[in-house]
Amino acid sequence: xxxxxxxxxxxxxxxxxxxxxxxxxxxxxxxxxxxxxxxxxxxxxxxxxxxxxxxxxxxxxxxxxxxxxxxxxxxxxxxxxxxxxxxxxxxxxxxxxxxxxxxxxxxxxxxxxxxxxxxxxxxxxxxxxxxxxxxxxxxxxxxxxxxxxxxxxxxxxxxxxxxxxxxxxxxxxxxxxxxxxxxxxxxxxxxxxxxxxxxxxxxxxxxxxxxxxxxxxxxxxxxxxxxxxxxxxxxxxxxxxxxxxxxxxxxxxxxxxxxxxxxxxxxxxxxxxxxxxxxxxxxxxxxxxxxxxxxxxxxxxxxxxxxxxxxxxxxxxx
Amino acid sequence: xxxxxxxxxxxxxxxxxxxxxxxxxxxxxxxxxxxxxxxxxxxxxxxxxxxxxxxxxxxxxxxxxxxxxxxxxxxxxxxxxxxxxxxxxxxxxxxxxxxxxxxxxxxxxxxxxxxxxxxxxxxxxxxxxxxxxxxxxxxxxxxxxxxxxxxxxxxxxxxxxxxxxxxxxxxxxxxxxxxxxxxxxxxxxxxxxxxxxxxxxxxxxxxxxxxxxxxxxxxxxxxxxxxxxxxxxxxxxxxxxxxxxxxxxxxxxxxxxxxxxxxxxxxxxxxxxxxxxxxxxxxxxxxxxxxxxxxxxxxxxxxxxxxxxxxxxxxxxxxxxxxxxxxxxxxxxxxxxxxxxxxxxxxxxxxxxxxx
Lengths: 318, 356
Fold this sequence. Notes:
- Chain A is of the alpha/beta class.
- Chain A has helices at residues 5-8, 61-69, 112-122, 128-136, 152-164, 182-197, 209-215, 233-239, 255-260, 281-291, 304-312, and strands at residues 21-32, 35-46, 50-54, 76-81, 97-100, 170-174, 201-206, 218-223, 226-231, 244-249, 264-269, 273-278, 298-300.
- Helices cover 32% and strands 26% of the residues of chain A.
- Chain B is an alpha/beta fold.
- Helices cover 64% and strands 7% of the residues of chain B.
- Chain B has a 4-stranded mixed β-sheet with strand order 2-1-3-4, sandwiched between helices.
- Classes of the chains: A alpha/beta, B alpha/beta.
- The A-B interface holds A 69-71, 89, 91, 94-95, 97, 99, 101-110, 114, 117-127, 162 and B 4-11, 13-15, 17-19, 21-22, 25-26, 185, 189-191, 193-200.
């Protein structure tokens, strides 16, 4: 293995024990006519890891995922999924992987329960699993509702349940939270966390950087068919060495006083707030606490969006 | 439901059940599969039902060899009337076109001048019977013989060709639309890709859908034949009519393969149903599903022979109402199976799991 393998062991928190490699993607390329959809992408995902592929629409996330799943053959490069090659269609591998596609792939006119039963039967699973899955994604009371009558969020959850029905080792989710309202997104996050808690490896794509920051152990930021950066969200942000912004209510502190605070670098004031930027927030905050000027205080650190801005030189637009 | 719960279905069974439920719960599909073709059967059956079915009624006064001979013919219906006066009154009133009275060797006919055609029929018929009786009375073998075949054998009553024709058409549209719309919609909704990622063989997916199409064809046959057999329509099945079922299934298979081909080329359901209609409707007209093709120009008859539906119709009519047996199936079955293999092969070649 080359240097890439050294990256993967790092993971946020201590919930992910060091395990084997679930997915290894090595220098894959994919072109559609003139378009270089994927241009030399490499990454590995450990067992039990929650791995996110981020980037704006058209970055090559979905194509990368499809190649990893074995839906497409890359022009060049190789994929090892659970130790095997997923292309050409590998019948031994299929029962071990769960896939949720970008469009909700359902059979016509079937209820939520019947969708799960049908997909379950393809894998030869006991129908008891259907109830478990309905419960996991919170659709027990919607079991008899036709799929077409479910809301967007419910349909996404059903789609994830269908991907998990056969208890796969690794799950691929393509933009599971796209086009959902905030509440539905948060419901889905709970489902995703629960899946990870069950020890599954999750590879998912999203264009919500904030969401990836919360959910993922590790992320790869993609743009124009390439991975620009890959690490834990926390480390990506830390490596940015961006200033922390401490925001106070306007008038709670004079600009001159603010500039005199320990560690204060830049101070700006607008109609509603006073913003102090610093690389050493601790002494600054304790100084503010001593002065008793913590009213309406907000601390804003850099996010993955700042990382994206730093990497591409442009604002992040999903 | 609860009984099913505990059983683990095979992929084939579960996919077939899913396809069946998708079919039975789609009102538009049900309409076009059953009600729409049945409407044709009912309307055509009622419009044409009485044509040729009602026989000319002749009044008879008294009885004799002529009346007995006529009674044996299917061509006319005899109405026995007690007196010549009564019979003459009925002719005058227009209730019957003619009556005859047999008195020993003298046969007298009185007919209504208003209906020349019927009168001609009656006179010709009676003349024939009387002449035949005269020849027999001489004890000589007849010098001239008339080879008389029943006209019904050649040209069928409408319900007799409408039932097999419309049934073939109905099974064909169900098969073509079933296959085409399923594949287009499954591709569009990415069900095909999802199935590609499940450990299920393509032949299982295909087979499960075919089973539903064949089941639909059997139900169509039962409904169509059942309704056509009602006294209002008066279908008369002949000897080995049940041979129509296996033939219809093979026909459904051929049209399923056409549907697969349509489904491989079309990107949307609208395009697929348009394409399927363009293929099926002219074919149905030229194959004799709605009316006999005997009257078509010769070159069109040749053209119609390239259509699988023509052979399906011919085979269905032969075994259902013409009283033919397995020998009538060889050509249709050969053509339909050949069609299935060739078109199915092309469809498999151009098949796409997803849109470009």
